[in-house]
Amino acid sequence: MKKLTWHALAFGVLAIAAPAAAQRSVSPPAVASTRAARTILFIGNSFTFGANSPLRNWRASTVTDLNGTGYGGVPALFKAFTDQAGLDYQVSLEVDGGKTLGFHYEKCRRLFDRAWDVVILQEYSTLDPERPGDARAYINDVARLSRLFARRNPQVQVQLTATWSRADQVYRSPGGLWSNKPVSQMALDLRAAADRARAVNPLVTGVLPVGQAWNRAFAAGVADPNPYDGVSFGQINLWSFDHYHASTAGYYLEALIVFGRVTGIDPTTLGPGEQAADTLGLSREQASALQRIARDQLAAE
Most distant CA pair in the chain: distance in Å? Predict the structure, then answer.
């Protein structure tokens, strides 16, 4: 069966792939190659700035933290990937731990109320902190933010990050919404909420399937689905020590999904010798495995 080109996947257009040799050098979307630099803004919280990992302040000088807190995080990792791919992105972030998108709109929009080419929106991990799983405020805040950015640039690409299942919510929260359910369920619910937000907000370009990539890694045996019973030999722990935030590997997978979707480039073209993985302590085998998971998840969308 023939594969889909990465250029087509980036824009949801079905197309027949070029021969295998050509797939290794797929060009990014045309808009990325016709401008000297593209601007991208990440709005989110600790899941974006890389809490509980070395990524938090990693290469902060390569990105612009609009809050001045000196974070690098997933945006800096995205920047590293684009540099290696020969692309020119000006990367900014506006992040605050434990906050919702509504907080960013109400309290911080003066920092980012300008024209951007791409905006990545990442909501609180349970959607509504007071009513876990309730997507009403999320959908409303996505609409408010999308309109704000579209007024500045009608061609802006707004992507919603659907995040991962929290192991603490599944295995250590008796009576909680996701307690004792399959570890994949929380990520599926968060994805469903993002899909709803996109469906009622035509200004939203797409959804970044980060949580689904984690689920794929569990199913493929690349990552361990339950950190509370010990991590199986040879498998990756995608969570950090609190079983809530991501580990370096978990954030690496998140950044690969963003990179593949935004640029249209197959993440596996970064290769086992990808520089950021090496500096962050991931092995060549781990980097390759996570790149394949990201590629396969994006291809499945």
Answer: 53
